[in-house]
Amino acid sequence: MTDSEGTEFKRITRTFFEKEWQGTFDIFYEVSADGEKNYVKFAEFDPRDYSRLDAIFKEKQSEVFYIKETDLYKYYQFNILKHLLLELAQENYSPWEVVRTVYPVVTRLLQDYLEISTSDTFLELLDEIPEVLSESLFPNNLSFFELFAITQKENTIQTHCANVGLYCLSLARELEMNRKDCEEICRGGLLADIGKKSIPREVMFKETALTEKDRQTIRRHPAFGKKMLNEMKRYSNTVLRMAGEHHENFDGTGYPLKIAGNNIDFAARICKIADVFNALTCRRTYGELLSPEQALTFMKEKMKGQFDPELLTAFFIYVDRQ
Length: 322
Prior knowledge:
The protein is mainly α. It is 52% helix and 9% strand. The strands form two sheets. A two-stranded antiparallel sheet has the order 1-4. A two-stranded antiparallel sheet has the order 2-3.
């Protein structure tokens, strides 16, 4: 969606402004004339004077507005992320405090990427996050229950991506992998399910039972995600394979490739455990929310053959260690 000068405008709603913004940006509305769409600035968002903007919203009587994609990208880059990194550099935070501080920024950025239909380059804003998180866990890993207390338990794609990235990182750290590998596994976990952006929302968040056609549609997301990340030409083979193989089962019954055992990328096998564990311990439209202990028991007894047994054992030990 562009104007006559080629500027990309992204649709937003009033709920977009309810977040804890830290700076200003321009807001536009759409007008049509002679079959062409144009965008007119009608207000500046300023969190210090939201009441004024709220009055304009009510007068406008519209729930839909627009923001320049370049403005949104720069806002995250120079306001949100810059302030975050400066804060972490200036404060002597513990690993738990680092993760707690970074986590809401990650979920918020992913939410806007998924909901505003920004271009895939928006994901580049996450580039420094795995490095920051990985560094924070050296030399001491977070205990599982410290980590579990930070993660949200919502049934959203952005929450799932953020949680899986953290669980992947912590399990990799528990396996005493080097810092660079931990960083890549964290990055792969954050992006593994990004292909779900290409799945119709009416299917992805269907509240009734899924049909076989629905299941087949959803099962396309690993291929979608790997293709999209590959086209960006900035991610390692580890990240690409985590996106493409995190639903493969150790016994060869998974999808989309039906590969088995050590033919599945090692990092993707870690991601498989994190992905399923998070799905079981978050609120879902189907199935009850399980405690960590219940989830692990379910994975061991009801999902035999799906996980690398050595990695699953390592995850059990990590969860049990106080």
